[in-house]
Design brief:
By secondary structure, this protein is an alpha/beta fold. The chain has one domain: NADP-dependent oxidoreductase domain (TIM Barrel). 37% of the residues lie in helices and 15% in strands. The strands form 2 sheets. Strands 1-2-3-6-7-8-9-10 form an 8-stranded parallel beta barrel, surrounded by 6 helices. A two-stranded antiparallel sheet has the order 4-5. The two termini are 36 Å apart.
Length: 315
Amino acid sequence: MTSPLLPPHAPRLGLGLAALGRPGYINLGHGEDLTDKTVEAMREHAWTVLDRAWAAGLRYFDAARSYGRAEDFLGGWLRERGYPATVGSKWGYTYVANWRTDADTHEIKSHDLDTLDRQWPETLEALGRQPDLYLIHSATLATGVLEDVRVLARLAERAAGGVRVGLSTSGPGQAETLRRALEVAVDGVNPFSAVQATWNLLEPSAGTALAEADAAGWAVVVKEAVANGRLAGRATLPPALAELCAGLNATPDAVALAAALAQPWADGVLSGATTVEQLESNLQALTLAGDFSGLAGLAESPASYWRTRAGLAWN
């Protein structure tokens, strides 16, 4: 299967920088993964992981304005290395933790035109180029962003300028949000052509809507395939997953990622690795072939899954 996002023969696995661009994040064990949390140390660390990802053939890299220094780290790495990578970024959240892991608030969400107009040039400066994908960060029906004619008109301008515009989704209403986005029109044309959604063995509820987006010609990217570490062996594994891992002689994170890669509508699946060792483990997913249908029983109700995710501690 080829991807509209990637050059021929590139793996459909990409690297997301949510855990690499800021010292605090909600992945299980994130605090222990980073021994030195100064900006310079984290930049060097991020470049080391990015170098390994590139050497492994990964060509898609994902950031966001709210991922601390992720866009800066990624942009600097791309300029230094000269690599022709495919880059995605997102607008709509502002990072406010000031590099503290104990901040009361780490990011603030705002899907208005002022935020879009402020963050677009910030992204251009940090990356040193236009992103190939530019997404509304965690769009929901509640924010009203899909009804905001001024925001939609500005995103249509970005699309007319050669950027693939879309949205990322979060929360128990992912499918409903995506279906509404599929109906958006600006002067009779939908500016959206990409979605990044949470899909994993614990929360597969957006799958049917993602298949609809794929059928409409959209690029479909999976995020949080290891459920912020819950499927990476840092929490007690469901017996069915542990049994399949033993049978395949594979780590749970690799199995979780392989299950996402097996979805026929998935153009790309993001690794959220914080360390080279985690990335090496994730890369096993590219060579795993198995029957994942026996893991369907792992699915939680969307309300329960997102309630648990909301309760994860930063670091």
